[in-house]
Automatic annotation (TrEMBL):
It comes from the Bacteria. [4Fe-4S] cluster 1 binds at residues 50, 55, 61, 289. [4Fe-4S] cluster 2 binds at residues 76, 80, 83. Binds 2 [4Fe-4S] clusters per subunit. One cluster is coordinated with 3 cysteines and an exchangeable S-adenosyl-L-methionine. Belongs to the radical SAM superfamily. Lipoyl synthase family. This is Lipoyl synthase. Its cofactor is [4Fe-4S] cluster. The gene is lipA.
Length: 301
């Protein structure tokens, strides 16, 4: 590992909590387009990860008339310690949800749509058929709209993964989220190796499939461990990586260990490109779907 790469503390420190720096401030959401997208989500009874996960970029993205649709309801069957999405017993599956999402994509005149979901371990296919149906209906309503799917691990159900891949999303995204050392505490009921296998299987299914993954930093990992995750993702031939600052939703969640500097994010981008990623989106406010429309063009070059 290059000598100039700084090492950082490796254990989350509950106290004292670091103060949020100036470079992490985002504008309060407002504006005509923001209000239009918000109104649409309410009238169509749809959910977005932008709201449910309290994304700091919601104002910027909604004012550009983009949103990441959250499929399969708003309640997750897992208890990841970093995520603000509600956890518990979900409502029955809404089979009409894909039609409403596709209609909303058409209303927003999107050229690029991002679909993600809660985990639904209560369903035999983890909700894979809803992903596939939504992709098909978006293509029917808006033929020139590209579609990215940010999928769960389907609890290792590779038939479910194949069902999504058969619908031919333009980008298959599955977030690794953090480093192996803290993975099982950060993401109970998930596995680092299983996520790497999912991404490798997506590449094996179709060599032309653009694959993508992301992780959050500042949760107690070291910079060297981040680079090791990059190597693991490249071993699965992942094309695109996103890296952003971990922000705890409130004090009951996994604590922020430190705030990673803009200079370190620039270093991650340089190291990612050096390792062969076709596109690296790295910065304090970067989230998995941030500027997602630009990732496809970079990845296919």
């Amino acid at each position: 590992m290059p000598d100039q790469i700084p090492l950082t503390p490796t254990n989350p420190s509950p106290t004292p909590r670091p103060q949020r720096p100036a470079w992490l401030k985002a504008r309060a959401p407002s504006g005509e387009n923001y209000e239009d997208v918000q109104r649409l989500m309410r009238t169509q009874a749809l959910h977005t990860v932008c709201e449910e996960a309290r994304c700091p970029n919601v104002g910027e993205c909604w004012n550009q008339r983009t949103a990441t649709f959250l499929l399969l309801g708003d309640t997750c069957t897992r208890g990841c310690r970093y995520c603000a999405i509600a956890k518990g017993k979900p409502q029955p599956l809404d089979e009409a949800e894909p039609e409403r999402v596709a209609a909303s994509v058409a209303h927003l005149r999107l050229r690029f749509a991002v679909l993600t979901s809660v985990n639904r371990d209560d369903l035999p296919d983890g909700g894979a058929h809803i992903f596939a149906r939504t992709i098909a209906l978006i293509r029917a309503h808006v033929p020139d709209c590209k579609v990215e799917v940010l999928i769960p691990d389907f609890d290792g159900n590779w038939d479910a993964l194949a069902q999504v891949l058969a619908a031919r999303p333009d980008v298959l995204n599955h977030n690794i989220e953090t480093v192996p050392r803290i993975f099982r505490r950060f993401r109970p009921r998930a596995g680092f190796a299983q996520s790497i296998e999912l991404l490798a299987r997506a590449r094996a299914y179709d060599a032309q499939q653009i694959t993508k993954s992301g992780l959050m930093v500042g949760a107690g990992e070291s910079n060297a461990e981040v680079l090791e995750v990059m190597d693991a993702l490249r071993s699965a031939d992942v094309n695109v990586i996103t890296i952003g600052q971990y922000l705890a939703p409130d004090k009951s969640y996994w604590p922020v260990d430190r705030y990673v500097t803009p200079e370190e994010f620039a270093m991650f981008r340089t190291e990612g490109l050096r390792r062969g990623f076709r596109h690296v989106e790295s910065g304090p406010l970067v989230r998995s779907s941030y500027h997602a429309h630009g990732h496809v063009g970079e990845a296919v070059r």
